[in-house]
Amino acid sequence: MVSADEEDSREAAVLLIDSSRLITEEVVCRGIRIKAVIDTGAVVSVASPSLQEKLRARRMGWDGPSVVMVNGQRAPPLGALELEIEHRGMKASGKVILLEMRGIELLLGNDFFQGGLNLQRGKKGSW
């Protein structure tokens, strides 16, 4: 989980999460299927630099606050991307911050769910 923090920290940080234990869902962005981590406790959504390269997305500057991971670690975003995400016929678009995450390309936080995505449980407890 990440949240915005008003203090500016120049420390380089990597979000370390065991993604095999998280809820994931396949979404489509720019025609490419992506396994996204669903984190409704996250205030912001996060993309990795490798996803930026894969999507050939233009990196924008980030003038917002640094982020604080659930473990208290602070990290200044590397920039931001404007993305449109599709899931089961629904679309949502918004800005995601760019941050190195090992094993995760895209983490979707509350900002995207408030923007129109609606994930509902399917059969057998899947999303």
Automatic annotation (TrEMBL):
SUPFAM superfamilies annotated for this entry? Acid proteases
- Tell me which Pfam families the record gives: Asp_protease_2 (PF13650)
Q: Which domain of life is it from?
A: Eukaryota
Protein's name in the database: Peptidase A2 domain-containing protein
